Amino acid sequence: MKKKKSILLSVLRTARHSVLMRTAIEVLHGGLVIAAAWEAAVIVNTVFMEHGGLAETASELLMLFLCVLSMSLLRLPKGRIEAQLSHRVRLSARAALHKAMLLSGRSSAGALTLTLERVDALDPFFHTVVPTMIAGAVLIPMILITAAFADPLSALLFLVTLPIAPFLLMLIGRATRRASEKQWDKMQALTDGFGELVRAAMTLKIFRRIDAEGAHLAQMSHTFAEASLSVLRLAFVSAFALELITTLSIAIIAVSIGLRLLEGLMTFQTAFFVLILAPLFYQPLREAGIAFHAAMDAKTAEAALVPYLDLIAAKDGARNQILTPPAVHTEKLSYRYPLTEEAVLTDLNLSFPAGKSTVLAGASGIGKSTLLLLLAGQIAPTKGRIELSDGAGEAHAYDLASLSEETRSALITYVPQEPHIFTATLAENVSLWMDNETDEAVTAALEAAALGDFLRTLPEGLRTPLGAGGHPLSAGERHRLGLARAFFQNRPIVLLDEITAGLDGETEAEVIAALTEFAHHRTLILTSHRPALIAWADHVITLGGEDR
Q1: Which of 39, 227, 302, 392 makes an SS bond possible with 64, Cβ 3.0 to 4.6 Å?
Q2: Same domain, 420 and 385
Q3: pTM across the whole model
């Protein structure tokens, strides 16, 4: 049985040095706590029992001050280490989540909940759970050993009452876990509902269903609120029970000490010292309630993230072994969208010659765009395989699914039918922040995509910011910007989806001329229904028809 990954434990393992440092600081803090308690006991005993003054207690007061000051100063490195651990887990989780979603070829439902709420829910694990665990592991044994030397009976009472709090937390653990999971599920449903409302706002407005959808969201919001209240109730009950148990335990110890003081069986200084230690001994147990619920939230959030983090990229090392440009072959390739019965593509055996331009033609809805997504590795086939081959034999043929995302990115450029335009400069929209960006390379890509005239009209040239939705680009210019990205990336396999859609005849001719120049030593695969592009191609594959 495959053991599931733990994001939290993996961060702790990779940050062992930080955890050990945090533990060492806690040991020092525990020593200072015990020393401060002893000095306080000495001062009180000197003043009230021995009627001493400032002269007799000056050294103890100074030591007490230094202990308290040192404990305050230790909060800084403790907080810094916890913040570093928290930052590391959030950063690594978001990076891994982003990479996993790219590998899966889709934007997952609830992605916003995953990347924001659920990743942020890991944060209290390092600010609350880890400090409480370390404090419990360090401070409790230190105080117990100290109490054993000072007053063995009190130490025995400490030891006897210690297991009660963990036993209580174990009893409510399952209920807390279930409540936490339910809360997260309702939060994700609510987030998805709001996202759906935003995406479908126009449709809902046209059909006058905004009020109905609003009522549905209100119901989901109410359900989420109820789930949250359930978690809060459990947290309140467990916190109250822990506080009651620890208070009663301290009271028992205090009564024991008081009776022995009256009978003269122990000194006032020792009694006061143990009484100071008692609340400090139970303090980690008091905080355990909050830490326990934080741990449950973190584990529930982690359980939602782990499936995405299990999507490991293939390790292939084949990038330098594939001669370019490669040919592309499909073998019994089929694809069916999730939750649908009918396949979009069935048993396709296609060949795209190396260094040639192939147009995928066919009726709308036949699956041309879906086939491009499969060839780009953005979605995985339901059945069959896609193979890259350089013609040098089977030793140089690779299954696309076996190649890592890094290798696929180095080999394949995919330009969708509707290229996304970022709220960034024109140059950044072309280069997509690649390291090799230069003004000359970006300008050359724009010129090749027949956007040179457009570039020269911009007031700030390449530094002109593009607004939301690609303003001021027209639909045809957005298509050509996608083509400019392909020119800039300069990869051996280029997949273009309806790249000349929305262009007039003159601009289409310019784009085709640019493609003619660009096609040398590249394997181009395009979808189109435009006669000019079909006539230009070296090879035409008609889905649902005859090829030429």
Answers
A1: 39
A2: yes
A3: 0.56
Answer yes or no: are the C-beta atoms of 399 and 386 closer than 8 Å.
Answer: yes
Q: How far is CA 347 from the centre of its chain?
A: 37
β strands within 252-353, DSSP E:
327-335, 345-348, 351-352
Of the candidates 424, 443, 378, 387, the residue with the CA atom closest to the CA atom of residue 405: 378
Q: pLDDT digits over 80-93, tens only? A: 888 887 777 767 66
Cβ neighbors of 164 (< 8 A, separation 6 or more) are 245, 249
Q: Tell me if residue 545 falls in helix, strand or coil.
A: coil
pLDDT digits (tens, 9 = 90+) for 382-398: 889 898 887 554 556 78
Its domain, for residue 486, covers 327-542
Q: Helix/strand/coil (H, E, C) string of 78-126? A: HHHHHHHHHHHHHHHHHHHHHHHHHHHCCCCCCHHHHHHHHHHCCHHHH
C-alpha separations of 221 from 18, 192, 214 in Å = 40, 12, 10
Domain shared by 382 and 293, yes or no: no
3-class SS string, 349-384: CCEECCCCEEEEECCCCCCHHHHHHHHCCCCCCCEE
Q: Which of 309, 338, 362 is the last residue of a domain?
A: 309
Residue from 127, 137, 126 nearest 12 by CA: 126
Could you give the CA distance from residue 250 to residue 279 in angstroms, rounded to a whole number? 7
Residue 1 lies in a domain: no
